[in-house]
Amino acid sequence: MGRAEARRARQRDARREGRAGGIRGFLTVRRLLGTFLTVCLLGVGALFVVYLLVPVPTANAQAEKESNVYKYADGSLLARTGTVNREIVGLDKIPDDVEKAFVAAENKTFYKDSGIDLKGTARGVFNTLTGGGRQGGSTITQQYVKNYYLNQDQTVTRKLKELVISLKVDQQKGKEEILAGYLNTSYYGRGAYGIQAAAQAYYRKDAQKLTVAEGAYLAALLQAPSQYDWAVASPTGRKLVSERWNYVLDNMVGQNWLDASTRSGLEFPVPKEPKAAPGMEGQTGYLVKAANAELARRGVSEDQIEAGGWTITLSIEKKRQDALVEAVDEQLEKKLDRDGDEGDATVQAGATSVDPGSGKVVALYGGVGATEHWISNATRRDYQPASTFKPVVLATALETGAQTQDGRPIGLETIYDGTSKRPVEGGDTPFAPENEDDRSYGPVTVQKATDSSVNSVYAQMIVDVGPGKVKETALGLGMQDGDGWPVRPAMSLGTMGASTWDMAAVYATLDNHGEKVTPSIVKDATHRTREVAAAPEGGDRVISREAADTVTKAMTGVVRDGSGRNARGDYHAAGKTGTSENNRSAWFVGYTPELVTAVALFGENPEGGQVTLTDTVNAGRANGGGVPALIWQQYTTGALGGGSDKRFDLELLRPVPEEPPASPSGTPSGSEEPEEPSEEPSQPEEPDDPPSDSPDPSPSDDRPTRPGDTAGTTEGTDSGTTEGGGTDSGTTEGGESDGGAANAGTAEGTTEGTTAGVQPRPRAS
Questions:
Q1: Which CATH class, in words, describes the domain spanning 86-265?
Q2: Using CA atoms, how far apart are residues 87 and 191, in angstroms rounded to an integer?
Q3: Stated pTM of the model
Q4: 3-state secondary structure of 523
């Protein structure tokens, strides 16, 4: 090797040594540490910038959505409405040991940490980047933030936002608020969001009644709701959730949140089978609709209800509600062929039952089903109440001390002329209604006219009293004003519109001795952020006790000896039948001392028009003393547990016995003599025998009777009239003039005739 070549070799070696020495000099501990700190500072700075730039957002739309929960009076579930099955509750509604079960399951350091788990979050980010699944080890605060502010997307961006927002939320909110939010936003399976919905879905109870064992199961569910649902879980799933349940309880013992001896005695709480939430089918939709309507009257708008979050407890008593539905099914639906008979398909039934002491609606029947016939037959006001309005006329006469045209005070013993088509005297509007079957009763007491629903008597009585005064009393008792309520003599036949709800209010006020009863179906309504006005209260006196009680006395005769005999049972009862013009509606409204119920049938064609009930549920006219009274009787018997010994406590106006004068104005002409009192009611084979004209027995004689002691009734149709020299449709006496011009319509008057005879059976001893 030459000298030049050796020199070049030495130069190459020197350059190599220089490079190696430079790298070793650069990679010193100091330089490595400095680089690490620089990276950390940059990272912290970046996080600080992100912390400043990322705000705590408003709640996502899903997080605040709630269902409305409707309950029966006893607290059992009636229905749940809304797209999200959630009912938000505060921690005060969740047992402390149940709260601790969730903390033990998800985040034992929850009460002490800063709201984040950096290691768990880093693991979650790594799993997301590598497709390693959803496991992330988040704290309760982070899970709450994800549920309430963000979404369930598995992205790095979402996880970083979750970290920052969790830090801020932990600083801004207390631990209890965060825990409550977490429990109310988590998904538990079975369509249940939040612990209240989960408690109902798995254990059929409210969250506040959960045991620690049940709470531990719900806490265990959150890890894998579908896999851990005991009802559908595989053997592996059941094994895993059992292990998870034990893990939760053991952690509680370790944190001194559960006594070891208590823990050892706990057994796995197998949840109940899944059950679909009730929908709007059957009577449910009618009940929900009535409750919402009342809330609207009490200041809760429709959009506030639609926003959700309401827990609404109705006054409906489930046993009585079931009894009412069963009575309609037995006495009406089983007698109809809705699919095969066009006439039968037109029959609609409605009913409202009220506690007269409180005004609570305890049962309501709206129709065949809310998903099939949405209009509630319990609250609709487009049909005439017919002769069920006559007690209002009598009440007004008694309250105002009204007199007949010849100056005799009106009472139950006052004698009127019951001649059919007899023109009324003393009125501004000519009116001469026909009694049922054009039957004339001659001289007849007010009691007998009430028992047999004699149209001619009540037409004269309303003129004697004054139609305007009668309407004022009707509105005070609970009826509603509206179109089609002309203040004329035909009003005595109930030609205005009214609902079973309205008529139940009227009769409840009479049952309550003249003090106002306002029906209410909402027992309680609560919301986290809103308040609702109190339920309407009665208590104001509408008429004197003596007037109300005397009307009650009169109507006990209707049930005992008159057109309402099919309503008799083992209870003391008062009531009135009614059948409207063209037999478009048939009513029985009655009460015992503790329960008031209005039952009605309506004829309605598929287009919503009113049609006759004749030859539908039974051959001929469908009278109020027939199917409506039978429904009332069966329901009342069931609702009272088979019967009641409670008696009416009546304070009556002084009776005014009298003999019929020769021919006073507005009184019998003397062409017919009063009938002799009858000791026994008419028998089925003689349904048209006139009932007794005798005065009612004394209150001590007023005893419960059974349905069917006599089969027939003489109950008059209240529709037709002849007013102003013409005929009147009974609904809106159109075309009438003060000069006696004819009214439009037809005269179909009558006092509700014979009804479905029930075979007689002995009276109760």
A1: mainly alpha
A2: 12
A3: 0.74
A4: strand
